[in-house]
Design a protein that fits this description.
There is one protein chain. The longest helix has 20 residues, at 51-70. The termini are far apart. The protein has 71 residues and is mainly α. The mean pLDDT is 82. It contains 3 helices and 2 strands; from the N terminus they run ααββα. It has a two-stranded antiparallel ribbon with strand order 1-2. The radius of gyration is 14 Å and the shape is flat.
């Protein structure tokens, strides 16, 4: 991901309008909601989501990973 491309593409991300309405407060850039297990940030794989949803989803993934490792 090149920064110049990111700046150009950021406005096209799903959730951008909500992000702008709040000056970004309470929102996070997420790469896992569109494509589970994704490791790359791009305009096709990212979206802007509320931080509370992002934290909740991250905690769920972490708990699942720990449970899998203990089995």
């Amino acid at each position: 991901l090149l920064f110049s491309n990111f700046v150009r593409d950021f406005e096209q991300l799903d959730g951008y309008d909500d992000f702008i309405k709040t000056n970004g407060y309470g929102f996070s850039l997420d790469k896992d909601m569109v494509l589970k297990g994704n490791k790359h940030y791009s305009k096709l794989t990212c979206k802007i989501i509320s931080t509370s949803i992002n934290v909740s989803e991250s905690n769920t993934r972490t708990k699942s990973m720990i449970k899998y490792m203990l089995v």
